[in-house]
Amino acid sequence: MEPYQLTRSKRKSLSIVIGRDGTVQVKAPNWLPKHQIDQFIQQKAGWIEEKRSEVSMRERERPAHTFQEGDVFLYLGEPYRLVFRTPPQGRQGDGCQANGEVQGISLCQKENILEMELRAGQAEAATVQKHLEGWYISQAKQVFPERASQYYPLVSKLAGEMGKEIFPVNRIVVRNQKTRWGSCSSKGNLNFNWRLLMAPAKVLDYVVVHELCHLAYLDHSKQFWQMVAAVLPDCRERRNWLKTHGMYLDWELGPQ
To answer: Closest Cα to residue 147, out of 196, 208, 207, 74?
Structure first.
């Protein structure tokens, strides 16, 4: 039988996820006997191999970044070419947004170009990667609150119509996560993955709406999905985009 990693929780159904390395990850209810899980895995053997092949193909297609001048990065689904420049002596600030993580480096976004200001000795790939990530995070800290503020009134109105109380948004936190796009707590705390800044805006909005709806329904009940669909009628399409392309919203340093 196919080996698998098992995670139990209060969930109601079984699910299988194929990891990027081909591992089989199974999520199961706490009450489900192990032999029934094994039987389920055996029944899904053909499906597992098919999905494993798909994941392997996508991994081969994943772009490996050099983090050097000319490399291309996505911002809200649009490609931006990385350009380096050396700051003129005595130049005052020109509106570039410093990422704030390492002093002396700023980055401007304009006309599908990400223009990074670097001094001598700062163009190493690892350094550029760190500053780019810092810039994305700084943008995410602006974008997510803006999108949440836009959609919250509509979600709150729908909650009232559905006879549900809704938690107010307490705080919004941007995180660096590998496996989760967002989360919501009963205290009204919303967490979002900064990597969503690379996805199309409509996909980012889907995750924002998804988490806002959890302020009314802290589960994935039928009512929860009805609320999501009421806000975004094409939510399934947006969700499927994330399932299919989400693995590309990641950075890997290619061969040097």
So the answer is: 208
Indicate whether 192 and 148 sit together in one domain: yes
Taking a C-beta distance cutoff of 8 angstroms, is the pair 195, 204 a contact? no
What is the rounded distance in angstroms from the CA atom of residue 243 to the CA atom of residue 256? Answer: 30
Examine the domain organization and report whether 105 and 195 are in the same domain: no
Whole-angstrom distance, CA of residue 193 vs CA of residue 144 = 10
CB 106 within 8 A of CB 97: yes
User: What is the SS3 assignment for 28?
Assistant: strand
Q: Please state the length of the chain.
A: 256
Residue 31 has pLDDT above 60, yes or no: yes
Which residue range(s) make up the domain with 37? 5-61
What integer best gives the mean pLDDT of the chain? 87
Same domain, residue pair 103 and 57 = no
How many of the other CB atoms lie within 10 Å of CB of 218? 13
Residue 190, φ and ψ in degrees, nearest 5: -110, 130
**CATH code of residue 183:** 3.30.2010.10
Of residues 216 and 254, which shows the higher confidence score? 216
Q: What domain count does the chain have? A: 3
Q: How far, rounded to the nearest angstrom, does the alpha carbon of residue 234 sit from its chain's CA centroid? A: 19
Closest to 147 measured CA to CA, from 195, 207, 97, 189: 207
Q: Is residue 253 part of a domain?
A: no
Report residue 20's pLDDT band, with 50, 70 and 90 as the boundaries: confident
Question: CB within 8 A of 129, min separation 6: which ones?
Answer: 65, 67, 251, 253
Give the distance from CA 197 to its chain's centroid: 8
Whether the predicted model's global pTM rises above the 0.90 cut: no
- Does one domain contain both 157 and 221? yes
